Amino acid sequence: MRYEFLQCSEGDREWAYALKSGAYREVVERQFGPWDERFQRELFAARWNPTISRIVVVDGMAAGLVALVDRVGELWLDEIQMASKWRGKGIGSAIIRGLIDQARADRKPIRLHVLRENARAQRLYRQLGFFITGETANHVLMECGEAPGQRTNPDETSSTRRPA
Which residues pair with 115 in a beta bridge? Predict the structure, then answer.
């Protein structure tokens, strides 16, 4: 399935919040307890950054959102969310594969964090070549790309890469 990206603007704020709520509500409730709408809106408002966010468009429809920061030494995948209608169709995986290719071309790793309770996302990231690099109180830190001192041949095992 083909997709394209459109730059987000401040006018996309409510749509992006609704998308995020739909994508994360279940996992947030598993990890933190009942959904607190006021707190979630405040958290979203503090983190919302349309300059790094792109709407994923499929068949002329807004299907998801990707937020990516190109930093010195890494690409940081801040968010990827697909609307429920578009989940499980391979679009998110195709987007992530494209980002991995971009990171490789730039000779950078791609990094992200995922909520501890989001086992489905962690499984997907592992299938796409990510490995765990650490953990925080709420997140698992993951990376795809060449680890320092390591070769990129996926057939070689590495004692510094922790299996997910």
Answer: 139
Place of tokens 């953990």: 135
- The domain segmentation of the chain, as residue ranges, is 4-110
Q: Which residues pair with 69 in a beta bridge?
A: 76
Distance, CA of 72 to CA of 91 (rounded, Å) = 27
Cβ contacts of 152-156, under 8 Å, gap ≥ 24: 152/104, 154/129
The model carries a pTM of: 0.85
Q: What is the length of the chain?
A: 164
**CATH topology classification for 4-110:** Aminopeptidase (3.40.630)
Give the span between the Cα atoms of 87 and 71, in whole angstroms.
28
pLDDT tens across 124-141, in order? 999 999 999 999 999 999
Residue among 89, 86, 24 nearest 55 (CA)? 86
Beta carbons of 82 and 91 less than 8 angstroms apart: yes
Query: Which residues pair with residue 64 across a beta bridge?
Result: 56, 82
Integer Cα distance of 1 and 77 in angstroms: 21
Segment (H or E) for 162: none
